[in-house]
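RECORD TYPE: inverse folding
INPUT: structure tokens
STRUCTURE:
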């Protein structure tokens, strides 16, 4: 096996380890906090971990910013559009347009999950909003 292949294998294994440990730790923390949809914290961690700490930090900040945009979109659309699949489709459409405009496509997947939670729960209380924000923060 060449040195380049060994290096690539080590790099991939390390990334897989970070994702596995980070995802399960995020899930565990969300469970400790009794958050609804706790496994989503693990999914968010999987989608957030990047190859460098700086890239992970930048993506995390962007995800927090777009979380608030997503919450506003959900609140407006899911109160106006009473056909769930149509409301979710419009939500995704607007979310993608906004994220593409900002150059933050990588934030769409997490906010699509968060939007699905709001759609499923139809709960826009402060407590539920905080629950979803904590999933993003932990992830």
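DESIGNED SEQUENCE:
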């Amino acid at each position: 096996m060449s040195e380049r292949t060994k290096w690539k294998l080590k790099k991939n294994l390390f990334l897989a380890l970070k994702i596995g440990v980070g995802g399960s730790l995020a899930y565990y923390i969300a469970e400790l906090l009794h958050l609804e949809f706790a496994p989503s914290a693990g999914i968010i961690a999987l989608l957030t971990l990047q190859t460098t700490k700086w890239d992970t930090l930048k993506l995390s900040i962007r995800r927090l910013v777009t979380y608030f945009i997503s919450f506003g979109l959900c609140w407006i659309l899911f109160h106006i559009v009473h056909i769930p699949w149509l409301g979710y489709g419009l939500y995704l459409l607007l979310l993608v347009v906004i994220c593409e405009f900002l150059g933050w496509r990588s934030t769409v997947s997490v906010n699509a999950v968060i939007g699905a939670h709001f759609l499923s729960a139809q709960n826009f209380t402060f407590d539920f909003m905080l629950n979803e924000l904590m999933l993003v923060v932990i992830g």
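NOTES: The first helix runs from residue 3 to 32.
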